[in-house]
Automatic annotation (TrEMBL):
Signal peptide residue numbers: 1-22
Gene Ontology terms for molecular function: carboxylic ester hydrolase activity
Name under which the protein is recorded: 4-O-methyl-glucuronoyl methylesterase-like domain-containing protein
Domain of life, per lineage: Bacteria
Amino acid sequence: MLFLSRFAFSFFLFLVLIQVQAQNAAQANYDESKVPPYTLPDVLKTTKSKKVQTKTEWETIRRPEIIKLFEENVYGQMPKSYDRLTYSIKNKNADAMAGKATLKEVTIEVVKNNNPVKINLVLFVPNRQKGPVPVFLLINNRGKDNTDPTRAKKSDFWPAEMVIDSGYAIAAFHVSDLAPDDTATYVNGVLQLYPEQLTANDGMKAIGAWAWGACRVLDYFEKDTTIDAKKVAVVGHSRGGKASLWAAAEDQRFAMCMTNCSGNTGAALARRQFGERINRINTVFPHWFATNYKKFNHKENVLPVDQHMLIAAIAPRPLYATNASKDLWADPTGTYLALKNAEKVYGLYGLTSNLNANPPAINQPIINSILGYHNREGEHNLTAYDWSNFIKFANVHLKK
Ligand code: GTR
């Protein structure tokens, strides 16, 4: 009887949550004319109102300030210390993909205060390439079968053959190794290494832990002589794309960043309040961002940052952002405008992007630009079309 009523109560809560989510999504604004007037924080003005004019001022004053603001208010701290990182090759096949690639399944173990976290990396390296090769690293937030090392199952979410044929290595790890994507169990992973993060209002949560994982894989790449660790592109889709941005902003060793349909608290401007909003993301995914971020529910304009500043923190490194035409939830226009508003920081490095004032038409990728972008026809997803443009973009910016 007690069991039944508990079950009924949980089911009731579940229904309420579904309804709240549906209401939130239905109430979302998709009408450009209803975007409220807003002023973005000036990426080139310090908190002490000093105008940043040089690369040095940017690197020594404003950039560190921006990273700190994102840590305190959005993603949480990114602890960098650990006691040791070791790895073992669980499986190796020098004749994978009909001889085109070498497969390595690597277990990376990171230990702090006797607490371990294990990252299972799947890595294919092209055989025809001589010397260390650049690599695309996917933060995989979907099923593990998308990155099948046996290649019995192939998925456009991680089109390994296409990447190998283009002369790049391709790697992936799954977010659940770092922090399960779940409100209750996200603490089982990286957060066991840094328990102080659990109670701090600016403590890292799941998205921070996934980004941390990408940084540790980069630590491993520095030890793998087949990989050019100075040419690592970190890739993520949607929630994974929020993590790829945060990883690239925090860790300047990443040479390039791809953020696919990352939307709210990813590459899209929050102040536009278009599609998903901070209140909604914090309510449905309370385990993603720092507790402090909840202060900005319904208060986008009070946030001391907006997402153009996260993109600016990646400068001068090349960044490619995408959207999908039917994925208004992730605000394609707001994503493009975030890139546009980060341009002036790239300008400090003498890098001019070729971004027009308005977003390009659907399926018109911008490749020859330090800030790349496309809005693909279709749904919220990571597809072969997206990857084909990542490769073109890397050919321009990584191969040279
Ligand atoms: C949605 C969420 C988005 C995005 C997406 C995904 O439910 O609102 O911010 O992260 O999930 O990861 O596919």
